[in-house]
Each structure stands twice: as C-alpha cells, then as structure tokens.
Design brief:
This is beta-N-acetylhexosaminidase. The chain contains 15 helices and 19 strands. It is of the alpha/beta class. Bound molecules: ligand TNX. The site of ligand TNX has 11 residues, from loops. Ligand TNX binds next to loops.
Length: 571
C-alpha cells in the first residue's frame, strides 16, 4: 500500500505513514483489506492478562473506554475475552505471570512501550509485553477513529460510522525517556491545568512529566516541616505581585500533589519533580533566613530576570543548607514514587566552591532516598556525580552553535563533557528546538525569543543524535548511545501579552495558563514527541506536516486553543 500511495509522487518515500494521520509515526504500518472496525453499541473491551498485571491492564481498559465513550456515548463494558466473539477491542499482555513491570522503575527500556495493533472488520487486537505498551497503542487506536471522537460531548456518528480502518501496526519508541516539562513556578498551574498538560503529553506517547516546582518567583510544593516555604514563597508569580491574586492559593497541597501523581500514573507517565538550586531560589530565600549569608530573608521577587543571587552555600553556611535540603528532599522524595529527583543547577552565579558544596550535598541526600539524580547540564560542574545521573542539555543545538552565545555556549559544552566523563547520560532539550516558550514568529503574542524563534518545521526537523556534533561533523561530544531521551519544555516566563510592559500588574492582564499552554504547545509538542518516539529514518517533514494537518481537526474537536502556525497550510 505504501508503494501504491507513493507511486503517484515523484519521490519514493520510505516513511511508513501510508496516508493515515498518525503522530508520532509508527515503526511499521500496513493498510489491510476490509471495511474496518465499526464501534457501536455491541462493542466491548476484552482484557487478557496475567493476574499480576490485571489492575494495570484494567486501568488501560478504563482509559480506552473513556477516550472512545465520551463523544460516541457508548458504554464499552470491560470484561474477559470471549472465544469467537466479534466486536471486541482486545487488550492483551503477551508475557506470562513472571513478567513484572514496575511503574516506578527507570525509564530506560523502550521495549516496555512497544505494542502491536491489528484492526479488522471483526475486532481490534492490541498486544504488548507490558502495560505502558498497551497504553501507547491505545493512543494510536484513538487516532484511527474519526476526529469527532475527540469531542468532549456526545456527537452523532459521522457518515461512515465510528470506523477505524483495517491496519496492522508494529511500533516501538526510539528513546526510552520522553519528557514534557511544565514551569509551574513562574506561573502557577492549578491541578486541572496540570491534568490538561498531562493529557496533551500522554496523547503523543510522552512518559515523563517534569514539574519545575520552585524558582525565584514561586515555591509550589508543600513541605510539612517548613510551612514558610509555601506561606511566603508561593505568594508571587512572575509579573504578579503578592496580594493581587484575589485570594488564590499558588501551591499544591500534599493531597493535590498526590492527585497529580495519580493522574499522571493513569496515563503511564512518571513524575519528575524539580527542586532547583542553588540558583533560581529567591522564593526559598524570601521564606527562610537560613539560606542567606546574613540570616535575613530576601525580599519577595516577581520580576522576570534570571541569574539572581543564589543560596548562601559557603562552607560556613552549608550546615543550614544541608538541613534545608534534607527536609525538602525527604518530603519531595516521599511525595513522588518515581525514581527521579531533578536537582536543577542552572544559572547559578556562584562564588568559588559554593556550587560544588551545594551539588555534593544535594546529590548525597537524593541518592540516600534511592533516587536517580537529574540536573541541568551545568550540574556537570559538580565535583562528582552519582551513578546513573542524567544531565539535561538545554544549550542551543547544532544549528545555532557559534551563531549566538559564543563563549558562554562553549562553557555549556565543557559542563556536558565533564558530566559525560563522570558517567552521566543525557536528556536532550536544546533550547532552539524544544523550548516551546520561544515564539513561533514575529506575530506570536507572548513568549520569549532569547534562543531563537521556533517554527513548526524547526521544532521537528532535527536529530538528537547529532545535536552535540560540531557543525563540520569533525568533533562528536556525544552520540545517540549517550542519550537517554528527549524532553519538550514549556517555561512560563512572559506568559502575558507583549503589550504588557510595566510590571508588576494585576491578574486581569494575564493570559489564562491553558490559553498560553495550548497556543505554545500546539502544533509544536507533537513535533517534539515524534522526534522522541520515531526513528530518524522514518521521519520526513513534509509527510509529518501532512499528517499533522489531519491531526489538527482532533485538537479543534477537543477544544484545544491551538496556533494555526503561519508556515503551514491548515486547510
Ligand atoms: C532559561 S532552561 C532557563 C529558565 C527560563 C528559560 C526561558 C533553564 C535551565 N533556565 O530559567 O525559564 O530560559 O526560556
């Protein structure tokens, strides 16, 4: 079928998309004979699983019933498979009772996300070796039904019925770690908005939810033993002075945070909490005098700057800093069942030794809680890194190196090299590709442009494996074997209109967080997700753009406020 479709174009494409609007593009797709599977009142969801994984498979079934039931109004009961039955959507784990997948294990094995999907006139069969694979396959199945299935209220069936075409798909991700970061510190995202972000990310098969929980402009997670962190440190947002928020609370209680972790878990995403330091800590320093050298809390900060004063990590004050980290990281480790703690480490103008003091203490405490450390690439300046550390590269990538930043960007690469020498692996989030707080173009009403502007094509058309190769191809700092994965990021700096020039200001001039997030993420988040999921050889921008135009009608149905980016003909 692929040959048939490409026969009428000049170039023979090797891309396995076969005209179906699937994003990210699967490893192998064939369109089969037949009318396809019609979802109707007789359809059921059949679960085939070893006992030990039954709750997880049941969870996938419930998610599927909700995805397919909302717009169709169909009940889609869950039950055991029935021999010879038609109308079943079968979710089947192929491994036996001995195969135990653990939802809190590291995201280092792409095979747990692999699946096979067959749709014919009689039934749908989705098989996988582990529950995340079933969940990823469910996302593919959703995209096979008509776009109206994404509507949030009951719709009449489209002319051809709720039909998925007959296909056979096998699929497995390129990278095991596929993250999405949300900056809830510069702007606070209420629980419902975080869930919306989780929906966006999980639809495109991302599996890590990185929450940037603390920064100069706010502290967003409750630490029972240090109530001042939230009582004081949560009262600001960037551009938003305390007392103008109409009594809203800008942090997550333990119950709310647990709700986020549970919701992410339902979508087979692991939460990666970030407690940034020693820089980006003014909210903590305003809350606790123990973090400053003179013992006096700093004033509350709601400005837009970075590179602000860091915690006092001098030899003399490290007792205080260590006590702070012990209390905070114990609480955060306890609220996050996943294997990771992100310790930040970016933009920390430090007197000699302070940065290393802080990193040493934070690394030791985090690993003491059994967590794998993640840090921004500056974390490579630590004297030592614990085994398994992941370093997140956020400098500019290959296309802009040498164009902006000069010396500073070379320093980035020194930190990366040091981290690699200490055994770290990399999460790739080059700012000129994956920073979706960057404007699309000159017409984007908010966001930044310090790295560059990022069109849809630029968000899509890059290869993580060669981002840390010099433009002339001569020097390879790191290749794919050093890369754990890819992350897409939504910072919340300047999530207010460009027309707003004087800060501070009241709430009425701010863009609602969902409006900002939807606009910046769509259409670009699916682009980064495909970079993370699909093999390089299977990716091709014109083909992606055509598939994405098909997918865009789903965003409209789902009520997502996406940006009709100017470089694409969306009609
Ligand atoms: C750089 S990325 C930062 C953030 C800003 C972002 C805005 C990183 C580790 N530091 O503090 O929010 O730029 O694009």
């Amino acid at each position: 079928t692929a040959a048939l479709l490409t026969a009428c174009t000049d170039e023979v494409s090797t891309v396995p998309s076969t005209g179906l609007g699937l994003v990210p593009v699967p490893t192998d797709v064939s369109v089969d004979e037949g009318e396809g599977f019609v979802l109707d009142a007789d359809s059921t969801i059949a679960l085939v699983t070893p006992e030990i994984m039954a709750p997880e498979v049941h969870q996938v079934g419930e998610e599927l019933a909700e995805y397919l039931g909302t717009a169709t109004g169909l009940e889609l009961p869950l039950g055991p498979a029935v021999e010879g039955a038609t109308g079943e959507i079968r979710l089947e784990l192929t491994t036996g009772a001995e195969a135990v997948w653990d939802r809190n294990s590291p995201l280092d094995d792409p095979a747990v996300d692999a699946y096979q999907l067959t749709v014919d006139d009689e039934q749908v069969v989705l098989t996988a070796a582990a529950p995340p694979g079933l969940f990823r396959g469910v996302q593919t199945l959703r995209q096979l039904f008509p776009p109206e299935i994404e509507a949030r209220s009951v719709q009449d069936a489209p002319a051809g019925g709720w039909t998925a075409p007959a296909v056979t798909i096998t699929d497995e991700p390129r990278f095991a770690y596929r993250g999405a970061m949300l900056d809830v510190a510069r702007r606070f995202y209420p629980v419902e908005s975080v869930k919306r972000f989780i929906d966006h990310a999980s639809t495109y098969k991302l599996n890590a939810l990185h929450l940037h929980l603390t920064d100069d402009q706010g502290w967003r997670i409750a630490v029972d033993a240090l109530p001042g962190l939230t009582e004081t440190g949560s009262t600001t947002q960037e551009g938003w002075e305390p007392g103008t928020g109409g009594g809203e609370r800008w942090y997550y209680t333990a119950e709310e945070y647990a709700e986020i972790v549970a919701y992410a878990g339902e979508k087979f995403m692991t939460v990666v909490p970030e407690i940034d330091g020693p820089g980006h800590t003014l909210a903590a320093q305003a809350s606790l005098g123990s973090l400053t050298c003179d013992g006096v809390p700093t004033p509350l900060y709601w400005g837009p700057e970075v590179n602000n004063p860091i915690v006092c990590a001098s030899d003399e004050n490290m007792g205080n800093v260590r006590a702070f980290l012990q209390t905070v990281l114990a609480s955060v480790a306890g609220q996050n069942p996943g294997p990771y703690l992100h310790l930040g480490g970016d933009e920390a103008p430090s007197p000699p030794g302070w940065y290393q003091n802080y990193a040493e203490a934070a690394n030791e405490i985090a690993t003491g809680h059994g967590k794998t450390v993640i840090g921004w690439h500056q974390w490579g300046a630590a004297d030592d890194l614990p085994p398994g550390t992941l370093i997140q590269y956020w400098g500019v990538g290959e296309r802009l190196r040498g164009v902006i930043g000069g010396e500073a960007k070379n320093a980035d690469l020194v930190d990366v090299q040091d981290a690699l020498d200490m055994g770290a692996r990399l999460i790739m989030s080059p700012a000129d590709r994956t920073y979706l707080d960057m404007k699309y173009d000159g017409d984007t009403p908010y966001g930044l442009e310090w790295a560059t502007r990022i069109t849809l094509e630029e968000a899509y058309d890059w290869d993580p494996a060669t981002e840390l190769t010099s433009p002339d191809g001569e020097s390879v700092l790191a290749d794919e074997s050093a890369m754990a994965g890819v992350e897409v990021l939504l910072w919340s700096d300047r999530s207010y209109p460009d027309s707003l020039v004087s800060l501070p200001s009241g709430p009425e001039v701010f863009v609602p967080v969902d409006t900002y997030a939807d606009f910046m993420l769509f259409p670009r988040l699916p682009a980064t997700a495909e970079v993370a999921w699909s093999e390089q050889a299977d990716r091709d921008y014109p083909d992606f753009r055509d598939r994405l135009v098909q997918v865009s009608s789903r965003w409209t149905e789902a009520g997502i406020g996406w940006n009709e980016a100017a470089d694409v003909d969306w009609t």
